[in-house]
Amino acid sequence: MAIRILDCAPENIRHIVMTHLHFDPAGGLPDCPHAQVHVHRREVEAMRHPRTWIELAYDRSDFAHQPAWASAHPEVRLLAGHMWISFLEGERGAAKQPAGAEAT
Questions:
Q1: Domain boundaries of the chain, sorted by first residue
Q2: 20 to 30 A Cα–Cα from 52, which one of 43, 87, 96, 100?
Q3: Quick one: pLDDT band at residue 71, thresholds 50, 70, 90?
Q4: H/E segment holding residue 77
Q5: Does the pLDDT at position 83 exceed 80?
Q6: In terms of C-beta density within 10 A (0-12 exposed, 13-18 middle, 19 or more buried), how is residue 16 classed?
Q7: d(Cα 44, Cα 41) in Å, to the nearest integer?
Q8: Alpha-carbon span 88 to 33, nearest angstrom
Q9: Sign of the CA dihedral 56, 58, 64, 67?
Q10: Which pTM does this prediction carry?
Q11: Among 73, 15, 65, 76, which residue's Cα sits nearest to residue 44?
């Protein structure tokens, strides 16, 4: 596991940010059983209730350990032509919008 090369034990990982939950990126989630998994709510729902052929790419064994989902509606901003995604909610997520940023 690549994490061990960094001298980090998988059981010490506390947060994982996922763009999607298909079998290829989600296959390592069971190796980090104490991590809170940050992912968009719609992706969690698609994994739980697949409706299209692309949503069949989820492997239920990747979620058998019942990860702690931190599914939010992330705030997406454009800043200097780059997309930034914030999963923070509540007081910590209420930061002022940077100059030149557009909330989408």
A1: 2-73
A2: 87
A3: low
A4: strand 75-79
A5: no
A6: middle
A7: 5
A8: 22
A9: negative
A10: 0.62
A11: 73
